[in-house]
Amino acid sequence: MTKAEAMAKAKALVAKMTVEEKMTQLLYNSPAIERLGINAYNWWNEGAHGVARAGTATVFPHTIAMAATFDPELINTIADVVSTEARAKYNKHVEFGDFDIFKGLTFWAPNINIFRDPRWGRGQETFGEDPFLSSTLGSAFIRGIQGDGEFLKAAACSKHFAGHSGPEKTRHGFDAKISLKDLYETYLPAFEKTVEAGVSGVMGAYNRTNGEPCCAHSYLLVEVLRKKWGFDGYIVSDCGALGDIYKFHKFTETKAEAAAVALNSTCDLNCGETYEALVDAYEQDLVTEEQITESCERLYMIRHLLGEFEETRPYSDIGYEVLDCKAHRELNLRAAEQCPVLLKNSGFLPLDKNTTKRIAVVGPNAQSVTALEGNYNGYASEYVTVADGIRRVFSDAAISVERGSNYCFEALNHWSGFNNMLSDGVAAASEADITVLALGLDCSIEGEDTGFDDAYTACGDKKSFYLPETQQKLAEAVCDVCENVVVVLLCGSAIDLGDKVTNHAKAIIHGWYPGAMGGLAIANIIAGVASPCGKLPVTMFRGDHDIPDFEDYNMKGRTYRFIEGEAQYPFGFGLSYTEFGYENAKIISADENKIKLSVEITNKGSLDGIEKAQVYAKYTDSRTVTPNFQLCGIKSVKLAAGEKAEVEFEIDRYWLKAVIDDGSRVDPDGNIALFVGGHQPDSVSDRLTGYSCLKVEL
To answer: Of 71, 238, 324, 388, which is the active-site residue?
Structure first.
């Protein structure tokens, strides 16, 4: 069904509704209209890394972990499985008359906000700090969710438009002041590209941007999204955001005025209850029936595209047995093996999986399921924690497991036990040949508006790039008693382990929130069953790095594109167990829209591996302020030991344009060079990997 056909059907159906009925359909929990044969429909569903909050589903690695794969084809495959499981659930929900929340096919994902500051707790929900990476992976995710059939398999939604990336504590009244240059250079490209990819919905953010609430933004929603980009899908408010317009932003005085200013800005759907006041707004002539009708028609266009009103519902043959089935768990494991980033390896890994040595698994994330899940998660039928994975893979070893510390709060013990058992963690490490130190956070520490404000977190945002003090104490004590320490860090962003632990550890693996199979994936990497291939989708700063104030949305000094000083581990960096060589980089063709570049990549090592090849643009002699580097091409390349492949990249010139002060993209007034390699072409990456990227002049 085309959009035009769906809209025609939507118009015909909406024309049969009274104005009061149309108003009710602009609420996320849209009631049934029995006289028209319309069932109730709840628009709110989540699927960032698996169908969430509605029973059993495959729990894939969280979005930031998926971003570390640098692999849009893999992301597309994962999203296709998510929508397959969504249809399986939906089919049964309809069969049994269950139209409650989290039961529909409209997923409010992906989160494509730019992870501009590693303190932001919700950064784990994003594809990282780079506009190109976020655009490419976000578009791949959307195509996987929505499918390529006659009907939408499910409907994706790009969020949060625009300029949302913390602070969580004040998001309901915060004003993000962003220049046009930064808006169009950093904050808007992923939204523009996902609109081009055909995303069904766009969600507005809680905050104001440059003075206007994002869910009622005359410039962002009307002038940019609707008119400039031609978006014809539905716009939904973040949950409760329309209430913020009058309660916290003080942009209007009344609820009815808040509803009116949002509808006037073409916000079609209210997650919340502010649109209950549309009746008052209509009676006060603040909105017209024509506006209400247009929003209702857009919503029903989506419902028709999903096939809700078809005599034979599309995808109705997908059975319940697919949920977290064997094939999906196998994909989950394969994905989870490509997410971890090997930050350090002193030749210690991989370990022999047949070892009979004593292995201690110590730390608050040793047996944590919540650290596998991240947030916005479903509930898997099976979880493999880090300790579980080590037991499975190193079945001949003598394995001990201790928690050793809490995430943040230090209490050496408690009357009920199992609190901060530092001495037990150190004891296990002291008698082990090897200690796997499982550190990090979970969504109770970093996440969405947790409501807790303490020494380490502010409502889910970190106050420090360092480990919480109680974990630092444990890690340093373990390093004092065990020579062979492998650190596994499970968290959503950058954490500095401190010099003592970083220098002592034989290897450091950043595992993110790796999904239900994450512990097995990490154990497979430690044993060399899988070779690490993840790359950092965010910059890992040192704990004392002088980063700008969290509330400052100016990009100066932020991310790899505008960093001042050196990163501890740069964006795009990640080690492997094998060595990849690059040769013969050249331009194949170039026109006004695209550049084709090729390079030969050889696996020069003795182990099979997957290389995440990257292309960056560098501007020189430009009078316009441009990024240090700009990622503009990625390819995942699987090579057997000794194998060589010629790899081609198609570079969209959109990413080679310079953005000037009015937000326009123009040809730069200087020169552009392209760099291709397994990392960005900065001096820190060169030093950490031992090689430089190849340079190609345009």
So the answer is: 238
